Amino acid sequence: MATANILDKFMEKQEEKSEIHANRKLKVAIIGTGWIAEAHVKSYMKCPDVEIIGAADLVPGKAEVFFKGLGFDTAKLRFYPSHKELLDTEELDAVSVCTYNATHAECSVYALNKGVNVLLEKPMCVTLDEAVEICRAEKKSGKVLSIGFQPRFDENMKMIKKIVQSGELGEVYYIQTGGGRRRGIPTPFGTSFIEKDTAGLGALGDIGCYSLDVVLNAVGYPKPLTVTGYKSDFFGKSTKYSNKPEYVDIFGVDDFAAAFVRLEGGIILDFRIAWAMHMDTPGDSLIFGKEGGLRIPSTDCWNGSVGGPMKVYHDIAGKQVETVIPVLSNNGKDCFDMKIRSFLDAILTGGPSPIPSSQIIYNQAIIDGISRSAELGREVEVIIPEI
C-alpha cells in the first residue's frame, strides 16, 4: 500500500494547455534542408496557423528537391542560397535552424538580429563561446529562442523530473548518465556528422547533449564548475569497424566521450556516451539522493525515452523497498510535434521559451569543457561569461 501511494503522487493528471492559434498564419522558413529538416516541416504542416514560405540551403537545388519530395508545389515557395539572403529578403515570424553544428551559431545570431524567432536544432552549437554569442543575440532581440530537445516532452522524461523535484530522493549528490550504440556512427546521410569542419562534435554533441539534458533538467540545471573529460575515435578511424571505409580518413570527431563533472550544490556527474563500442550499453542512468535513488534503464540506441520501467530505491518503515514506475505512454502524441507546437505557442503568447537557452548554455558548457579537457589532458574550470 505504501509503495502504491508513493507512485500515485507522480501519476496525477495535468491539465493540458489548449492550443493557441493566431488570427493570421505565422510565416516560417527552414534554414538547412538535411534529414532533420524533414521532421520540422512535417510537424509545421500539421499546424493550421503556419505558412512555410521557403528555405535556404548552400547546395544549389537541394531545397527544391527536398520540398518536392514532401509533396510541395515548389513554384509557390521561395528558395535562397544562404541564410543571409533569406533573412534579408523575407518578412518572417520564425525559422528552424537545421544546418550542421558548425553553423548553428552563425545562422541563429543572424536571424535573432533580424528580429526573427528561432527554433535551433540540438546541439545548441559547438563551443561555449558560440553559445554565449547566441544568448546575447537572443537577449538583445527579445525574440523566442528554443533549443531542439524534444525528449523533454516525453511523459517518462517528465516523470524523472517529477520524482526528483518531489523531494522523494532527498538531496541529490551523485548522477551517472550517458548512453550510446554498439554500432551507430551516423554516415547514411553523408559526412556532415563526422567531419570536423561541419560537425565540430561527434557522439558528444549528437546524443550526449540529450542524455545530459535528461538529468540536468531533473535536478534544476545546476551550473557546472569543473570538468575532467576524455574523447576517442577508435571506431570511426578504423576500417575494421567503419560502415563506410572511405570515410575513415575524413573522420574528425569523437565516437566516444566520458567525463567527471562537478556541479553547483555539491552534485557529481559521471557521464559517458558512444556512437560505437564493444558493449551493449555504457550503463543505466542513476540519480543518488540522500533519501532514495532512481534507476533509469538505458536503451539499445538512444531514442529520447527510457529502456524499461524505472525504479525508485528507498526505505519505508525501516525496510529497504523498490517502487517500480511503469513505462508511460504519450497517448499517441509525437514529441517532435509537441516541440514545434510549444515553440509556436511561445511566439504567439510572448514566451517563455519552452526549452530556454539559459538552461542549455550549461549543457553546452559541459560539452565544451569535455572537449577542452580532453585536448589538454587535465581538469578544466568552467567559466560562463555574463550574458
Summary keywords:
387 residues, Rossmann fold, Dihydrodipicolinate Reductase, domain 2, nine-stranded mixed sheet, 15 strands
Q: Count every beta strand, where a strand is a DSSP E run of 2 or more residues.
A: 15
Beta-strand residue fraction: 15-25%
N to C succession of SSEs: HEHEHEHEHEHEHEHHHEEEEEEEHHE
Query: What is the CATH C level class of the largest domain, in words?
Result: Alpha Beta
* Superfamily (CATH H level) name of the largest domain: Dihydrodipicolinate Reductase, domain 2
Q: Judging from the principal axes of the Cα atoms, what is the shape?
A: globular
- Count of runs of 4 or more consecutive helical residues: 12
Distance between the termini: 50 Å
The tally of structural domains comes to: 2
Give the mean pLDDT.
Answer: 93
Q: What's the alpha carbon Rg, rounded to whole Å?
A: 21 Å
In CATH, the architecture of the largest domain is 2-Layer Sandwich
Low-confidence stretches: 12-20
The CATH topology of the largest domain is given as Dihydrodipicolinate Reductase, domain 2
Residues in helices, as a percent range = 25-40%
Largest sheet: 9 strands, mixed
Strand order of the largest sheet: 14-13-12-11-7-10-9-8-15
- Supply the helix-strand structural class: alpha/beta
